[in-house]
Specification:
An 8-stranded mixed beta sheet has the order 3-2-1-4-5-6-14-15, with helices on both faces. A 7-stranded mixed beta sheet has the order 9-8-7-10-11-13-12, sandwiched between helices. Helix 1 runs parallel beside helix 2, helix 5 packs across helix 6 and helix 9 crosses helix 10. The protein is built from 12 helices and 15 strands. The protein folds into 2 domains: 183 residues, Rossmann fold (3-Layer(aba) Sandwich); 166 residues, Rossmann fold (3-Layer(aba) Sandwich). It is of the alpha/beta class.
Length: 372
């Protein structure tokens, strides 16, 4: 199979879908790897390293798109890339289709086999291709939140950990999954006053066992959320329903009740966000202020630390990518049924239920019935 990787064109996205070590793995399995020149520079991987690993370097992204059978990326393709789709192409990347009708329509029209990192679900229910970026985004959320609490950014001018004789900042985390747990780890480690809210009592019990008296756990109800965010200096939105639109737990009405200059970091923005007042921002222009509350809603947070993010992500994606390249998508699904869960589009149809419910006007199908 011809495997391709291009430079990401999303705003300030410096991650790359394949490292030179990944290229070696694909080449060792007998595949030809096409790499756009400069694709890995943002993550610290020069062209010479790719060439030494066995990649064929191409001058333009168009050459890679047209020449490959499987494209390995990091972020969802942008409109400038839609004309480069071709029928039967396997697109292996984060897709986040639920809030993105334009991309969904382009994948359907192009009959692209869209294999989404974020929906691949292992037998134990874990999301192995989402976990590494969730870990990074969770830890970054506190780092960014602490920065935007500074007065010069419109924040209330509070130091997250405080100092002796001053109050600690109150951090409220909505969602106790991978993002929430990692946010909690950093916030508690910095000495903030942390409350984490989740609907799953077993998850809260687990977090309580890990962090003990350093945090407060609460069951997710509208009343508990409203009370908690009213006193918060920093709110982290870390709610996730794999592949589907995120529920809006952070209501617009809360803004007027909160402290002026408090910060809301919506880590769930890739799936539409968990805040009613959220809208996607970029690393170039990461925040906006509404009703006195600073909103940080960058859609590719881990792109801020591309070296760490690229290595963490590709450590996870290479295993499944090699299965797909070695066997073809269809046989890879049959041999490892876990891969079925990652297929979001196939042969002009939506094949992931969480996406299908967002687009009832587009034909959907059960991927297992389509390919057996």
């Amino acid at each position: 199979m011809r495997v391709g990787c291009v430079k990401e064109i999303k705003n300030n996205e410096f991650r790359v879908g394949l490292t030179p070590d990944n290229v070696k793995s694909y080449a060792a399995a007998g595949h030809e790897v096409l790499i756009e020149r400069g694709a890995g520079l943002g993550s610290g991987f020069p062209d010479a390293d790719y060439a030494a690993a066995g990649a064929v370097l191409k001058d333009t992204a168009a050459e890679v798109w047209s020449g490959c059978d499987m494209m390995v990326k990091v972020k969802e393709p942008l409109p400038a890339e839609y004309p480069l789709f071709h029928e039967g192409l396997i697109l292996y990347t984060y897709l986040h289709l639920a809030p993105d009708p334009e991309q969904t329509e382009a994948l359907i029209k192009g009959k692209v086999k869209g294999v989404a990192y974020e929906t691949l679900t292992e037998k134990d229910g874990s999301l192995p291709l989402l976990i590494p970026m969730s870990q990074i985004a969770g830890r970054l959320s506190i780092q960014q939140g602490a920065k935007y609490l500074e007065k010069r950014f419109g924040g209330e001018g509070v130091l997250l950990a405080g100092v002796p004789g001053t109050p600690k900042a109150k951090v409220v985390i909505l969602g106790g999954g991978t993002v929430g747990a990692n946010s909690c780890r950093i916030a508690a480690g910095m000495g903030a006053d942390v409350t984490i809210i989740d609907i799953n009592l077993k998850r809260l019990e687990h977090l309580d066992e890990i962090f003990g008296s350093r945090i407060q756990t609460l069951v997710s109800t509208d009343a508990n959320i409203e009370r908690a965010v009213k006193e918060a200096d920093l709110v982290i939105g870390s709610v996730l329903i794999p592949g589907a639109s995120t529920p809006k737990l952070f209501k617009k009405k809360y803004l007027k009740e909160m402290k002026p200059g408090a910060v809301f970091v919506d880590v769930a923005i890739d799936q539409g966000g968990c805040g009613e007042s959220s809208r996607v921002t970029s690393h170039d222009d990461p925040v906006f202020i509404e009703e006195g509350i600073v909103h940080y809603c960058v859609g590719n947070m881990p792109g801020a630390v591309p070296r760490t993010s690229t290595i963490a992500l590709t450590n996870a994606t290479i295993r499944y990518g090699l299965q797909i390249a070695n066997l073809g998508l269809e046989e890879a699904c049959r041999r490892n049924p876990v891969i079925y869960s990652a297929v979001n589009t196939y042969d002009g149809k939506i094949t992931f239920p969480g996406v299908a419910v967002c687009y009832p006007e587009i034909e959907s199908a059960d991927i297992k019935e389509l390919i057996g």
